[in-house]
Amino acid sequence: MALRADWLPALAAFEAAARHQNFAHAAEELHLTASAVSHHVRKLESRLAVPLFQRHARGVSLTAEGRQLADAAGSAMADMDDVLRSLSAASDDRERVRVTTLHSLAYSWLIPRLPQLTALHPGLRLNVDTEIALTRFDDGGPDLGIRHGPGNWPGLTAHHLMDDSLFAVASTSLPGVDAVRDAADVAHLPLVSDLSRQGWHDWFRAAGVHGVRLDERHSFSDATDALAAATHGLGAALARARIARPYLGDGRLHQLPGPVLKARWGYYVVHPAHRRLRPAAKQVLDWLMAVEKD
Prior knowledge:
Blueprint: H1 8-20, H2 23-30, H3 34-48, E1 53-56, E2 59-62, H4 64-94, E3 96-101, H5 103-120, E4 125-130, E5 144-149, E6 156-162, E7 165-170, H6 183-186, E8 190-193, H7 200-207, E9 215-219, H8 223-231, E10 236-240, H9 241-249, E11 254-255, E12 261-262, E13 266-272, H10 279-290
Parallel strand pairs: 3-4, 3-5, 8-9, 8-10
Antiparallel strand pairs: 1-2, 5-13, 6-13, 7-10, 7-11, 7-12
């Protein structure tokens, strides 16, 4: 006897009834009435010419034939469920894009702009990885990276995203900050630094301040941590404009007197030169290049 498509509703009702050992519970799961489930089961029993359930006052229980069919139906439903989940996950993966960048840029620049991206591409799924080390773009690695650097990395295609600038900032809670009138006065404050290649010595040189002993008390690997330290009054920090904007906007930090120094390096969107971008990753790249930078 060949399985036909018109058997499927009856088999689905039977599988649920067999799993619950209860027609009412099966009906609730399938959004049917108990009488509809019973009708499907009786129709299946009639076609097979075997009883699948024993009916008694306390409910129903499977016959030997019913148990045999229930095992097969349950296994088939489980296999179908696995396939459907796999297909759904594959569809989700096609819309998922992994982007790697620095924590400082993600917090201050990228995340505040992501609502624009989700409004433009509602189906997009984004994984944002933040780390200091340069991520390897092997198979299975990130689709895109936003890097701060010179703009040329072996094996990567780089798209210039934006430039940056450096200036001194501090919290009003920093002792002695009220007396600062020029860049030379900044040199007498405790200083906070990060691992940027441009630091306080470059800034003071640009300001024309020479021959002073700098008190660089605290150093952090991430620019966000350096700015957070400055907000707590640990010292003045040399901030990149792209990173400092949230801190200046809400008054946690204030710009100090002195030069605004053009950053030696810029920000670039990078991806493997040998690998064609998936459509979803291309959407993110196009958005990054077009998004308002200021």
